[in-house]
From TrEMBL:
Keyword Coiled coil applies: yes
Coiled-coil portions: 397-438
InterPro entries: P-loop_NTPase (IPR027417), Rad50/SbcC_AAA (IPR038729)
Pfam family, one: AAA_23
Protein name as annotated: Nuclease SbcCD subunit C
Ranges where the Rad50/SbcC-type AAA domain occurs: 5-178
Family label: Belongs to the SMC family. SbcC subfamily.
Length: 1006
């Protein structure tokens, strides 16, 4: 990898465009990048790293890459041209940054941009990628290094390698992991450990399965009768073979127990069947004896009903003797009922006549009542005919009365309408007068409208100007306070910067003075005498001074912006005051509102002129119509009143005749209906009385005939005959009862004499309870035998299955236990935990140790050259020191006295040379590791101030000069004055008040 050209714009310390021509530096091979502390030397290295990786070394973020001194229109950009693997590339990057907005004059945030181009030999350019992911992948593939590796092997941070040289293993290991990719070895460690965990878990599950089977078998054995099965041996879980033998023995014993239990169950079943048969026989005898006793009891109860049968026979014979006279008795009863009903009807008819106010005659003898009622009915019909003759007159009287009432109501309605019209007329005349006044107002408002509008417009303009004037006065006060505050803060920041700058310069002088030795030249001026060396002061680094300068510049810019804002606001205030005058804003606003209100009112009034004129015409027409309606209503009311009075007099004469004919009835129609109904009621009462007289005679004749028949049949009187009579159904029911008794008696006698029942009574009482108890005991014994047999069979099956499971579990566990042992040994070996790993190193650390050994060997080649063959670096195995982790230690071999030393015992200059050699060795190893990419451009950062001027510096420079062989370029980053004398080709970074600049590379005379 060779650098050709670097272009910076608004990047970190460089506010403008700067160009570094590395091709000119490559011709010299060794150049010095120099400048004052804080000038921005490291910023050039940051720009190279940013161009290649989009990030800067360390912890600085991309958002802070923009120079604080750059103009807003100057974009932050880095362009780097380099050759990698024989191909020339150009990388252009811009970080995310603020820029001026295209519209509105404000600021907007521009996204980060990147371009990767190939520069062909003929000068043509080909775009390779312009997306961040694609550019990063292209450069990663070409360089073969991560950003951290690049920063260690190309931008050699000598101070960082001093810390690496002195660091213990636990601090050295993370750096090596960043430089050398050992992730796959760490993955292998974790993979082996994960496999070990899985194998341990699987083996534990297999052992747990054996333990579960043994535990289950022990539980089954515990359910057997005490002393019949043996408990598992104590070491059954740890000794699978012993457990397997024990379980096989218990299965054989369980088999024998199941056979014995099956035989005992068969015997219990036979005993239960015999007891069940005996109980059935006793139960049958008991039932037959109970039936015999029940049959005897039923016969005795039936024979006790003989008296009831004899009474039924006597009742049946009496009914048969009375049967011939039954028809006469029925005729008598029918005639008697009819006479009673006719008498009730006659009484009801007479009661109805009394309720209808019929004038009935005396009712002493029913035979004479009927003719009197007929005569009364004829007289009532004659009165009804006379009232009917007056019905037409009554109808005319009612209709005429309604007509007269209607005329009077119409006259009253006309009077009310005329009164309402008169009120409406007064209202309409008032409305006409109001509209005439409004019409005059509208004409006047239209004439004044233009003048009012002009006055209102002027008042509104002055009000707005006054509001703006008052607002600007407040803004002026605010801006004055802001300007004063910004001015004071800018002055304070500038004073703070000057203070820090003085402290920084005093501190630098004190550091140089501390290194002065009598007779030795000063590193700054070269003098060998030091009459007044600077005293020690509190040290302030250059970054703090630079930060204070930037802060002061920022506050000065803020002060200038506040001054411009104040001047602008004051000019605007003067213009607003000239337009508005000195009148207060409330007064002007009140005047504007009053003028606007007058315009609004005049506009509204003028706009009503047409509508008011139209309404006025309509109101005048309405007044004329009302006056005409009132005159017509007065004439019609007089005519209606006269007609109603004349027709009312005639109506009173006809009404007197009708009242007399009504005789108190509500109407003639009601009077006629009442008389007609009374005549009909009298006729009905006469008919009912005549029917009652006839029915009474017929009932007496039927009673006499029935009494004669009772005597002929042998009964004492008619009631005795009636009591003996029965209906056909009643006779049939008596016959059935007699026959049922006789049949039942025969059946019960036959049942009580059955041979099997007679034989059962001859035997002793059946022992049902004893046989039942014996049967229940046999059944319980059978159940116990069945439970024992089922338990034995279950134990036999369970132990058989468990024996099979145990054999399978033991077979399954053997390979898992072997795999657990194997993977445990491998994992402990890879992670450095096992006894077999004598180095106590994990696999990834072992690989890092091998890389460190390569780096130490490559560094020794450089260090021997720098130290005249005295010092060499060597990788040391530190396990002998008893630490739990090791393998990453370094020692220094002193060939002059043959001793081995710790790097921490080296002097400052020796430490610098050792760390530089270590950095160069690391660069060689990583270059070889990344596919042989030749690193043709290297930078060595700081540390040269610790070298003496006699020979050590010469050795280091000779070693760096040797790196130029084959066209390699080495840039030394330092501000040490001796190097400016020893390295003629230099690149100077000069710091100014407004940022830094890069002076073009110049070859100085030797």
């Amino acid at each position: 990898m060779r650098l050709h050209r670097l272009e910076l714009r608004a990047f970190l310390a460089f506010p403008a465009r700067e160009v570094v021509d590395f091709d000119a530096l490559n011709e010299a091979g060794l150049f010095l990048l120099t400048g004052r502390t804080g000038a921005g030397k490291t910023a050039i290295l940051d720009a190279i790293c940013f161009a290649l990786y989009g990030q800067v070394p360390g912890t600085r973020g991309i958002r802070r890459l923009r120079s604080d001194h750059a103009e807003l229109d100057e974009p932050t950009e880095v362009v780097l041209e380099l050759t990698v693997r024989g191909r020339r590339l150009r990388v252009t990057r811009r970080p995310e940054q603020e820029r001026r907005a295209l519209r509105g004059g404000g600021r907007t945030l521009a996204k980060a941009e990147v371009r990767l181009e190939a520069v062909e030999p003929d000068g043509s350019v080909t775009l390779l990628a312009n997306r961040h992911e694609e550019v990063g992948q292209e450069l990663q593939d070409a360089l073969g290094m991560t950003r951290d590796q690049f920063c260690q092997v190309v931008l050699l941070p000598q101070g960082g390698f001093q810390r690496f040289l002195h660091a213990p293993t636990k601090e050295r290991e993370p750096l090596l992991r960043e430089l050398f990719d050992v992730a796959r070895f760490g993955d292998l460690e974790r993979w082996l450990d994960g496999r070990r965990v899985d194998a341990v878990r699987a083996a534990e599950q297999a052992v747990r399965a054996i333990r579960d089977v043994v535990s289950a078998a022990a539980h089954v054995v515990a359910t057997a009768p005490e002393g019949t099965l043996a408990a598992p041996p104590l070491d059954a879980e740890r000794d699978p073979a012993a457990a397997e033998g024990w379980l096989s023995e218990q299965a054989v014993v369980a088999e024998a127990q199941a056979t014995t239990a099956t035989e005992a169950l068969a015997q219990a079943v036979a005993a239960r069947e015999a007891a069940e048969q005996a109980h059935a026989t006793a139960r049958d005898l008991h039932e037959r004896q109970a039936q015999a006793r029940a049959a005897a009891e039923a016969l005795a109860a039936w024979e006790a009903r003989a008296d009831a049968r004899d009474a039924a026979r006597a009742r049946r014979d009496a009914a048969r003797a009375a049967a011939p006279a039954q028809a006469l008795v029925a005729a008598w009863e029918d005639r008697t009922a009819r006479a009673s009903a006719a008498g009730q009807e006659a009484r009801d008819a007479l009661a109805a006549a009394r309720g209808a106010d019929v004038p009935l005659p005396a009712l002493d003898d029913l035979a004479t009542v009927a003719p009197a009622l007929g005569a009364l009915a004829d007289r009532l019909r004659t009165d009804a005919g006379g009232a009917s003759a007056l019905l037409p007159i009554e109808e005319q009287v009612e209709s005429e009365r309604l007509a007269v009432d209607a005329l009077r109501r119409r006259a009253d309605a006309l009077a009310r309408e005329r009164t309402a019209d008169e009120e409406r007329l007064r209202t309409a005349r008032a409305a006409v007068a109001d509209l005439e006044a409004r019409d005059r107002d509208a004409q006047t408002a239209g004439d004044r409208l233009d003048a009012l509008r002009e006055t209102a417009g002027t008042a509104e303009v002055r009000s707005r100007d006054a509001a703006r004037r008052d607002a600007l006065e407040e803004q002026v006060r605010t801006a004055e306070l802001a300007h004063t505050d910004a001015r004071e803060r800018a002055v304070a920041a500038r004073e703070a910067h000057q203070t820090l700058l003085r402290q920084h310069l005093d501190g630098m002088a004190a550091v140089l003075a501390a290194r002065l030795r009598d007779g030795e030249p000063c590193a700054v001026c070269g003098a060998t005498e030091h009459p007044v060396p600077a005293h020690d002061h509190a040290s302030v680094d250059a970054d703090a001074v630079e930060a204070a300068a930037r802060h002061a510049d920022e506050l000065t810019a803020v002060r200038d912006r506040r001054a411009e804002e104040l001047a602008t606001i004051r000019a605007d205030l003067a213009a607003a005051t000239g337009a508005a005058g000195a009148a207060p804003l409330p007064e002007l606003r009140a005047a504007a509102e009053t003028a606007a209100q007058a315009v609004a009112e005049a506009t509204a009034t003028a706009a009503q002129a047409g509508a008011v004129a139209e309404q006025l015409g309509e109101r005048r027409t309405a007044v004329a119509a009302l006056e005409e309606r009132i005159r017509a209503a007065a004439l019609e009311h007089a005519a209606l009143t006269a007609d109603a009075d004349a027709r009312g007099a005639a109506l009173e004469t006809d009404l007197a005749r009708v009242r007399a004919a009504r005789a108190g009835a509500p109407s003639l129609t009601a009077r006629v209906a009442s008389l007609t109904q009374a005549a009909t009621t009298a006729d009905e009462a006469a008919s009912a009385v005549a029917a009652a007289v006839r029915a009474t005679g017929e009932a007496q004749d039927a009673q006499d005939a029935a009494a004669d028949a009772a005597g002929a049949a042998g009964f004492d009187d008619l009631p005795a005959l009636r009591a003996a009579l029965l209906s056909t159904a009643e006779l049939a029911e008596l016959d059935a009862r007699i026959e049922t008794y006789d049949t039942g008696l025969v059946e019960r006698r036959a049942a009580a004499r059955r041979p099997e029942l007679v034989a059962a009574l001859a035997q002793p009482p059946a022992a049902v309870e004893a046989s039942a108890a014996a049967w229940r005991a046999a059944k319980a014994a059978e159940g116990d035998a069945l439970a024992l047999r089922e338990a034995a069979v279950s134990r036999r099956g369970q132990l058989r299955g468990l024996a099979q499971r145990l054999t399978a579990a033991i077979e399954h566990s053997r390979p898992l236990l072997e795999q657990r042992a194997l993977l445990t040994d491998l994992a402990e070996l890879a992670t450095g935990r096992g006894a077999a790993n004598r180095l106590n190193m994990s696999l990834s650390v072992y690989v890092l140790a091998a890389r460190l050994e390569e780096v130490a060997a490559a560094a020794t080649d450089r260090l021997l050259e720098m130290t005249d063959g005295r010092y060499a670096l060597e990788h040391a195995d530190d396990t002998a020191k008893g630490r739990s982790l090791g393998g990453l230690d370094l020692v220094v071999i002193d060939h002059w006295n043959g001793t081995t030393r710790s790097p921490s015992t080296l002097s400052g200059g020796e430490t610098f040379m050792a760390s530089l050699a270590l950095a160069l060795g690391l660069a060689d190893v990583i270059a070889a590791q990344t596919g042989g990419v030749r690193l043709e451009t290297l930078f060595v950062d700081e540390g040269f101030g610790s070298l003496d001027d006699e020979g050590t510096l010469d050795g280091v420079l000779e070693a760096l000069d040797a790196l130029r062989e084959g066209g390699r370029t080495v840039g030394v980053v330092s501000h040490v004055g001796e190097l400016r004398q020893r390295i003629p080709t230099q690149l100077r970074v000069e710091r100014g008040r407004n940022g830094s600049r890069v002076r073009a590379a110049t070859t100085l005379p030797a």
